[in-house]
Amino acid sequence: MKNYDIIFFDLDDTLFDFPKSEQEAFTKVFNQYNIVDNLNLYKQSYREISRKLWSDLEKGKMSIDKLGSERFRRLFLEHELEMDAVVFNQDYLKLLGEQSPLIQGTEKVMRELSHKRLAVITNGFTEVQTSRISNSPLKDTFEQLITSETTGFQKPQTEIFDFAFRQLQITNKSNVLMVGDSLTSDIQGGVNYGIDTCWYNPNDKENRTSLKPTYEINNLESLLEIIK
Asked: Which of 85, 126, 185, 221 could form an S-S bond across to 69 if both were Cys, CB 3.0 to 4.6 Å?
């Protein structure tokens, strides 16, 4: 057990229940445009398109600025919908920012760790993540919110960690822990940067990569055993 003074958290699927947020915002934006037929079909297509684009973002093949409207552009093209992808994406992001369902155990863990320095490193959109945090019980929890949109880099790139370390004026990597659900983003990013990592793996997925997280947990409250 090590004494971690600074803990970086991912947000989506680590602290926030992203599928629930996405589902709610997606349904609302299509209802806003009076499109109610074939919604499940659109959702399925959207998830596949979005998954590929976020993967491209991690690999540096896609910018966060382009990703937002591109996913809807491809969706509308596939289903022959005459819509403005840029405006639609803006409306979707506004609604997404209003969704803040937390993963079970998040509030307790944040309360127990309130004496530590806590920050967020996320590949998400700055305005959305700021809004979701401020609309949730986590609103006064984090010292910094560091996003790929703000920095111009994304996990697993080392530059986003460089930015985070500068913002928090960290000089010692040994007392920093990165916590997240994504092996290719959070864990790879932490490993690349030389800091300890904790893989949050609630569904007990098999690790098919060569990555070796420092810790692996399947519920957030187990984090308290590691940090205490």
From this structure: 85
Give the closest residue to 168 by CA, choosing from 11, 7, 3, 15: 7
Q: Using one digit for the tens of pLDDT, what is the confidence trace for 93-150?
A: 999 999 999 999 999 999 999 999 999 999 989 999 999 999 999 999 999 999 999 9
- Residue 34 CA to residue 226 CA, distance in Å, equals 49
Dig out the tokens for 224 from the structure: 């308290």
The span from the CA of 17 to the CA of 100, in Å, is: 8
- Let me know if 10 is a catalytic residue: yes
In the chain, DSSP assigns E strands to 6-9, 117-122, 144-147, 176-180, 196-200, 215-217
Q: Label residue 36 left, alpha or beta by phi (over 0 means left) and psi (-120 to 50 means alpha).
A: alpha
The answer to whether the bond into 156 is cis (omega within 30° of 0) is yes
Q: Alpha helices, DSSP H only, in 17-63? A: 18-32, 39-58
Q: How does strand 176-180 pair with strand 6-9?
A: parallel
Residue owning tokens 């530590």: 116
Contact status, residue 33 vs residue 88, Cβ threshold 8 Å: yes
5, 10, 37, 204: the active-site residue: 10
Give the pLDDT of residue 1. 67
Quote the tokens at residue 160: 């986003």
Burial class (CB in 10 A: 0-12, 13-18, 19+), 214: middle
Question: pTM for this structure?
Answer: 0.92
Q: In degrees, to the nearest 5, what angle opens at C-alpha 168 toward C-alphas 132 and 13? A: 35
